[in-house]
Amino acid sequence: MFINKLNQLYKPERVLYYLEAGPEEIEAFYKGEIPETFRKLAGTFGTYDYPGVFYVDSLEKEVIGIEYRPEDDRIDYPTELKSILLDGAFYYSIEIENDNRIDLPFIRELFAKLARDDDAHRQYSDLAISDAPRVIGVFTHISKFRILYECRLEADRASDVIRDDAEKLDRELLYRMAFHDPITGHYNWNHLVPFLEMPMDYGIRDYAFAHFDIKEFRIINEVYGHIAANKVLSNVVRAMNEADFVYSSARCHNDNFAMMLRDMPEQEMIAKLEEFFEGLSHLEEDPNYKIYFRCGVVPMQRAVFSANRVADAGKLAQKLGTTPNRTDIVMYTDKMNDDILWSNYIKAYLDTAVQNDEFLVYLQPKFDIKEEKIKGAEALIRWNYKKRVMLPPYRFIPFFEKDGSIGKIDDIVLDKVCHALADWKREGRPLYPVSVNLSRSRLYDPGLIDHLVGIIDSYGVDHGLIDFELTESASYDNKEQMLLVLNRLREKGFRISMDDFGTGYSSLSLLTEMPLDTLKIDKSFVDKVGTGQDLEKDLVVMRYIISLAKELGFVCLAEGAEQSSQVEQLRSLGCDVIQGYYYSRPIPMEEYVEKYL
Ligand code: C2E
Ligand code: MG
Ligand code: MG
User: Which of 275, 455, 472, 500 is the most exposed place for a label (fewest CB within 10 A)?
Assistant: First the structure.
């Protein structure tokens, strides 16, 4: 049985999970029996209300649904709303009392009637400005059922229409609910939409858009309680109302807010917002607690698209604000959007690419600079994307790192490297160690070591021929875990290199704890030596890094030397090994075999 998911448009904070069920299960449900799978689901998902029969896929499919409210739902929503305006669309619902159990044929008949143009539609037809009302679902309860249908509105006219409608139908509540937030009494998102879509109507010529939320708002809620948390929300509203650079603002949902701001140069904007958030950073209940925000800003040139797209752009930038214990203000760039599209695309395409064998391993030799002899190589992945264009790692590695699929890439590389080493051994060629990059996100995989050993042993490759490179920054997340994994790998006879040394900010004492064979000094340091105008300071730094590495017993490797003058300088400073374009770029495996083995 498949579990499907449907975002309930009329209650966006909740998700309807449904199981496709056969006629017997549906009949049984009406008799009051809830299927076993269903109960189990309830256990897995947490709170649930409204088990019901739901119709999806244009009313074709009858399913049993369970409404799931995410566990971190922080603030209670008024669930009893008869209709809510969302993104310029109404979702009206009609509830029909039913004192008996629901009669299936009756619903079907009623549905068919609604799906055609019937009375209920006509009742609201004046609201359906841009689209005909469309029934989106029927939800049955034991005692009543609800029919939902949607009416789209032109956003800038939404306010008028709703006001008229509210008067006509005598539903002031509806109007208030449609444009106000029940907790702070401030405007909600729907109220802000017309401003964004038709700024000129409000005398606004240039504007920027900001979307922000409160970091760790959950903690405020849980530790200091709902009242304190609601007070924080109200303070935000007051500050937005008082700020002279805010044209209009809204509380969107939970701890999310949006503002339409006066446009100004980027630095000024950041300074203004920092001051704004600083003013909101105190928690009355606890002077030691500091409130931080993350805010995405869409500058005017980018804010000219539709309200929802502006909001998406703002949220995208907002999400990138992840610095702990600090307020982040992130300016939206088009690249962020391109990245998301590209990232989603390649993630979906990854498995096909693997099947098509589009990933290749290039090898870049490492040279001993005293003896001018090859010492080994680093395996670097290349993606022969759709067999049309060769993509360098920065075009895909960071995206796969984020969602965990990087493991697949690293495995392909390790597999190809082991395959090659086994071939070379059989062919009687000299065997030099090959290093592979190990992504730091994988350090938390409890099966990692067995998995790696499994691949290597399946080719019978000597463990001493495999060198795992880990970037220095891997130690930030969890030093203990990193040390544990590295020590176990070392015990199994593998070599370990610290990659990109000098780009992170790890303490030097970490070097004494790490089980290392090689320290790879980052190219950014190497770039500063042998230029002909070397600064004494840079040379001092390089000399000390090299002697530090050597005194701790590591091989010292310099990454990215391109000029002979750099090689000379590094040699005189005592560096052992160089991996850089001066000796060779990364090359296809066949070429490596031809040239070096
Ligand atoms: P890295 O591990 O530090 O690899 C060294 C990078 O420096 C390689 O870039 C290499 O081509 C480049 N390089 C070496 N010598 C020179 C030089 O003299 N001049 C210049 N300008 N560049 C030089 P590449 O292949 O683009 O890889 C970039 C990064 O992508 C790697 O940095 C590594 O972090 C990551 N990467 C590559 N392959 C894999 C992989 O299979 N798995 C994982 N997780 N990451 C990989
Ligand atoms: Mg590397
Ligand atoms: Mg490196």
Answer: 275
What was the pLDDT predicted at 564?
92
Q: How far is the CA of 189 from the centre of ligand 2 (A)?
A: 47
Distance 435 CA to ligand 2 centre (A): 8
Q: ∠ at Cα 4 (91, 34), nearest 5°?
A: 90
DSSP annotation of 474: G
User: Are 495 and 515 within 8 A, CB to CB?
Assistant: no
What angle separates helix 189-197 from helix 155-168, to the nearest 10 degrees? 130
Q: What is the mean pLDDT of each run of 10 residues along the chain (597 residues)?
A: 43 55 68 61 46 53 57 33 33 41 48 47 39 41 41 42 46 61 82 81 84 92 87 94 94 92 92 96 92 93 70 89 91 84 87 93 95 95 90 90 87 96 95 94 89 96 95 70 92 94 74 91 90 80 91 94 92 94 95 94
Nearest CA to ligand 1 atom 34: 437
pTM for the full predicted model:
0.63
For Cα atoms 523, 596, 368, give the angle at the middle one, nearest 5 degrees: 45
pLDDT of residue 242: 94
- Strand partners for 380: 362
Please calculate the CA angle 176-178-181 and round it to the nearest 5 degrees. 70
The amino acid that residue 68 corresponds to is Y
The pLDDT of residue 213: 95
Report the pLDDT value the prediction gives residue 67, as an integer from 0 to 100: 56
Cross-strand pairs, 139: 54, 146
Q: Say which amino acid occupies 467.
A: D
Q: How many helices (H) and strands (E) does the chain have?
A: 21, 25
Which tokens in the block code for residue 463? 């463990």
Which secondary structure element, helix H or strand E, spans residue 580, and what is its range?
A: none
Atom 7 in ligand 1: residue holding the nearest Cα: 560
The number of angstroms, rounded, from the C-alpha of 326 to the middle of its chain's C-alpha atoms is: 19
DSSP for 308-368, written as a single string? HHHHHHHHHHHHT---TTS-EEEE--HHHHHHHHHHHHHHHHHHHHHHTT-EEEEEEEEEE
Q: Look at the alpha carbons of 80, 3, 87, 261 in this order and tell me if their dihedral is positive or negative.
A: positive
Query: Residue 390 C-alpha to ligand 2 middle, in angstroms?
Result: 19
- Beta carbons within 8 Å of 374's beta carbon, 6+ residues apart: 365, 366, 367, 368, 432, 596
Q: Which atom of ligand 1 is nearest to the CA of 361?
A: 41
Q: What is the CA radius of gyration of the chain?
A: 31
d(C-alpha 59, C-alpha 111), whole Å: 8
Number of residues assigned to the chain: 597
- Are 449 and 488 within 8 A, CB to CB? yes
Report how far residue 4's alpha carbon sits from residue 18's, in angstroms, rounded to the nearest whole number.
5
Regarding beta strands 555-559 and 577-579, do their DSSP bridges make them parallel or antiparallel, or are they unpaired? Answer: parallel
Tokens of 153: 């509105």
8 Å CB contact between 107 and 138: yes
In this structure, what are the phi and psi dihedrals at residue 139, rounded to the nearest 5 degrees?
A: -130, 120
Question: What is the distance between the alpha carbons of residues 464 and 517, in angstroms, rounded to a whole number?
Answer: 11
Tokens of 240: 């937005």
Going edge to edge, which strands form the sheet with 207-214? Answer: 246-253, 256-262, 207-214, 293-298, 328-331
